[in-house]
Amino acid sequence: GYTSIYDNVEHVALVMGDIAGPNGDGHDVLVRVHSECLTGDVFGSRRCDCGPQLDAAMAMVAREGRGVVLYMRGHEGRGIGLMHKLQAYQLQDAGADTVDANLKLGLPADARDYGIGAQILVDLGVRSMRLLTNNPAKRVGLDGYGLHIIERVPLPVRANKDNIRYLMTKRDRMGHDLVGLEDYQEAANMDSYDEGVYLLGERRAPDRDLGGAL
Fold first, then answer.
1. Does an H or E element contain 3, and which?
2. How far apart are alpha carbons 55 and 52 in whole angstroms?
3. Neighbours of 98 (CB within 10 A)
4. Mind listing the pLDDT tens digit for each residue in 122-162?
5. E strand or H helix at 12, and its extent?
6. Which of 3, 88, 108, 192 could be cross-linked to 101 through a Cys-Cys bond (beta carbons 3.0 to 4.6 Å apart)?
7. pTM of the predicted model, to two decimals?
């Protein structure tokens, strides 16, 4: 675990295998930097894809046998905090999307900072990584402190009728790489969708593609 000297927020690094690797240089490490989400990670909220992303990242690192899942606390609601996030949910229930809800509260659409996360990865011995994320902006936030991102690895996303609008907003307004949502939306409108289907790259895949660990 790590405690930030800047704000005293505690963060957790789940490490598997030898990060130094066969050459002892800390290169080519599979990494997930996961933002805290109480509602999704703990309570299983269907309004977001946070819990399934965490599950998928842990399964993929476990399958590889080497990697880091860094759990960043203080990132609740993309950095606006739990109480503001709950207020944003009320605005979303009234019709605002996830971006406009934050803005209506006078808050940024995304207030997260990844500098502490980058420093933790360096301390763990990571030098180059394959980053598990659908968010290209996260690459910019982590590509520093001597770290190099050699590949962005897409994370499978669990889509359902409660989070489809949220996912489409992340794609359309925040630049997330989420392919196939239109197909899911069309199927949902016809009540013929498969609940819990994963959207991975340009194909839809069931849980078994991740080793049955989800």
1. strand 2-3
2. 5
3. 25
4. 999 999 999 999 988 888 778 778 899 999 998 877 778 88
5. strand 10-16
6. 88
7. 0.84
* Domains assigned to the chain: 2-75+112-155 (3.40.50.10990), 157-203 (no CATH)
In this predicted model, what pLDDT tens digit does every residue of 13-69 receive, in sequence order? 999 999 998 888 899 999 999 999 999 999 999 999 999 999 999 999 999 999 999
Catalytic site positions:
110, 112
Mean pLDDT value across the chain: 85
From CA 33, how far away is CA 61, in angstroms rounded?
Answer: 12
- 149: three-class secondary structure by DSSP: strand
Q: How far is CA 6 from CA 2, 33, 49, 102, in A?
A: 12, 19, 29, 25
Q: How far, in Å, are 28, 40, 61, 87, 189 from residue 152 at the CA level?
A: 12, 23, 14, 32, 32
CA-to-CA distance for 32 and 210, rounded, in angstroms? 15
SS3 34: strand
For residues 163-181, b (16+ Cβ closer than 10 Å) or e, as one string? bbebbbbbbeebebebbbb
Residues in the chain: 214
- In angstroms, rounded to a whole number, what is the distance separating the alpha carbons of residues 17 and 68? 9
